[in-house]
Structure formats: C-alpha cells, structure tokens
Amino acid sequence: MEIIIWAVLGLLAALAAFGVIFTGIIGIQFSRNLKEGLLPYFFYPALFSSGLMVLLSSRTFSVDGGTNEALVNSSAAAAVWAIRLNSIFTLIAVADQVVRYFATRPKIDAPRALLFLAFCLFWVTNVPIAAYFASHQVAPELQWVYGPALIFGLLCLSREGAHETIKSSRNAIILYCAAGLVLIFIMPDKVLDRQYAQGYVPGLPRFSGLAPHAITLGLTASIALWCLITEPLKTKWINRSAWAICLLTLFLAQSKTVWMAFLVGAPILKYYQNGLPKLTARGIGRLNVLYFIVPAGMIGVSCIVAAYFLFGNGADRLQDFLQTKQGAQILTGTGRDLIWEIALREWHASPIFGYGLNLFDFDYRTQIHMSNATSGHNQFIDALGRTGIVGCIGFSIYLFSLLFFGFRYASQSSGLTLVVSLLILVRSITEVAISPAGIGITETASYVLIAALAACFTKAQVVNTRKFRTVSMPNQIFNKTA
C-alpha cells in the first residue's frame, strides 16, 4: 500500500512539473504576439488573486473584526490556485522580459544595476541572513525568490513596456477599487468595518474593500489617482468615473498618512506637468508665485500661529487637546507606541540579527495578546526587531536609493517617481512599506516606482537621416509633447 501511495504521489508530481513546463512554453509563445511581452500586465492577475483571496475568505468585520487570520488561513481552492497561477505567470513574464532586454542590449545600464544591487542588499540582509542567523530561525520558502526576480524583470522593461506597465497598474487598481465598492451593497460585513471609531468623521465605517487592510487599499487608490494625473484615460466620462471611484475609495479607507501623502503629491505632479501659475501686473511684469505668494503666505501663517500662542492661550489649549483621546492617538501613533516598544525590546535582546522573520506572526501575537500587531508599524523599528542592525542597514540603503532615483528622475517622469518614493517614505513611518520577499498588493507602490524609473533609465538615442539629425529622448514618456 505504501508503494502504491508513493507511486501515485510521484505520478502527480511529474504531471505537475509537466504542467508547469507546458504552461511556461505556452506563455512564452503567447508573449511573442505581444509587443512588450507579458510583464506589463502583471498587475491584473496580482490584484485579481489578492481580491479573490479576500472574497473567498471568512473575514467578517461584524464578527471577528476583520482579523488577518481569516485571510492567512483561507483554504478556498480557487484562491489558492489563483495565487499559484499568479506566481507562475510572474516567473514566466520575468523570464520573457529578461530575454527581451539582453537580446537588444549587450549589458545592463549603470542605474538599473545600482538599484538592483541595492535591492539585493536589502533582500540578503532581511531574508536569508535573518532566517539563518537570527535568534529564532525559520525554514526557507520558495516565495522568497519571487521578489528579486520581479524587481529585476521590472528593471529590464523598455521605455514602451514601462509605459504600458504604468497604464495597466492604473486600470487594474481602478477595477479593483470598483469591485470593492460594489460589495458594499452585496457583502457589507466583508468590506466595511462599522465598529471603527478612530476616524475624523464620527460614525463613518472604514472601507477595506478587497484589500487585506484599509491602509493598503488607500495606498493603491492614491497611486491610481497619481497615474490618472500623469496618464489620464482617453474618454472623458470614463476618466471622471475613475477619479470618482478612486477618490471615494481613498476617503472611505480613512488612512491619515495616505491622505497626507496624496495631498502633498498631487500638487507636485501638477507642478511637474504644468509648472507654477504666473501673475501678470502692469509695470511689474510676470511674477512667479513661488517667489512671492508662497513665502508671503508662510510668513503670514507663522505670524498668526505665533500670535495665537502668545496672546490667545494657544499653549494651554494645545496641552488640553493632547490630554484628550484624539491627542493621545496623535502622540502615540494610534497605539503604535506599544508595538514599537515590543519590537525595540526584541532588538535589544538580539541587536545584530534581530528576533527573526517570525516576529509578529500568529503565535507571537497570541503570546503578547495583540492580535492586530502584524508588524512593527514602522519599517525602521520593524527591521530592527525582526532583522537587527544588519537588516535595518540594508533597508535604509535601499530606501535611500529609491528616494535618490525618485528625485533624480522627477522631471523626466512628470513627478511620478518623486511622489511615489515620498509615499513609500511616509508609509515607512507608520507601516511596513516594502518587503523583499513575496509579491502582492502591498508592494504596488514599489513596483510602480521601479517601472517608472526603468522608463527614465533608458538613454537618449541619436537618429540620423538624410535631411536632419535629431535626438529622441525615450525617458520623456510622461510628457505629452515629447
């Protein structure tokens, strides 16, 4: 009987391997009919599998408060296979993209190489080193290699492929948000947290949609809005509908940090697209708003605030506010100070390599009696507690690289690289913004940023003809007049 069982298992394993190989061959052949390959359309299966996992899970805000255990322990066959097929699709698309890149270029460009090396340092210090040298070791997992493979594939995108990737991310997120809004009328307990009491609007439920968390949903909605600014949809009424869907999603998600990042990023995008407005006056000429109105406004606001604190008992009122529930939430990061204290305690216990990758897993959360503490809620503190000083240094170098290239190529991308890199920085203060292992919706911001940078890394090409000699700038893909 044992021989028969092992024979059946071996046959099933062989069939599975054959199916994967056959699927890969079919995928590669199909990608030949696509000008830019399969990778630009990665966001469609990624968001679909993520949404299907939530839809088929047992998450119910009215019963369990929407805990993550309901998502992690989801055993729906359709959701499991959707995630597996998404992983296979990603690996096939990456392989196709890498072959396309090196078939047209003898070597990888320096900016692409530097950014990928920074990510590899981030990955090595936060995954394998932490897994094998931390105080609590874990077994290796296959999904650890998905992150580096996808990042390298995105860096190998051509200018047109990166452009198509940004548009597909925009469209996929809009559909993702719209599906979640529809579920408000069909399955409200799965997408709405009616017990949420930390928002600025009393009694307004918090909307999580088909995302694992409301903050993740708000993050993806803000990215779609920024993509709509740089790449609006061609049909006017569809474009306005997309704006309405994403703005409503962003508002109902009630994430203060994402709101702040969006309100800061939208003017930056408009500036890089249209420049600053001009004022015209007789005898004076044209005055730039940047050199007159903005400094004057800042001085005026500063004077008003100073006068309020000096003569209007502003200090006493501020002290009274900080003693209220809302003020305490601001000072403690909505209760995050307790999680920070726990993460730092684990770092002090193992300062070099940290506690391990299983920090804040289900068993650890049960031990500390904090079911919602799924991370350190600050990536620097989380990296210290989880992977120690080594992991925190690796993360800091990669984050600095994203910010550097985001600022460096802000004008070429119409500000998109700048605002997305700033969004990652802001989110790192209160959440875990980027992960080196695995692929999913939580990494949408970094994937869009890498795609935008890949377009900007493409060098200018000199075109010679009989009548004229021009220089085409492939990195100006976001500029309508390029």
From TrEMBL:
Segments passing through the bilayer: 6-26, 38-58, 78-102, 114-135, 141-158, 170-187, 207-229, 241-269, 289-311, 388-410, 446-463
Protein known as: O-antigen ligase-related domain-containing protein
Native source organism of the sequence: Xylophilus rhododendri
InterPro entries xref list: O-antigen_ligase-rel_domated, WaaL-like
Keyword ATP-binding included in the entry's annotation: no
O-antigen ligase-related domain residues: 244-395
One cellular component term from this protein's GO annotations in UniProt: membrane
Primary location: membrane
Assigned keywords, A-Z: Membrane, Transmembrane, Transmembrane helix
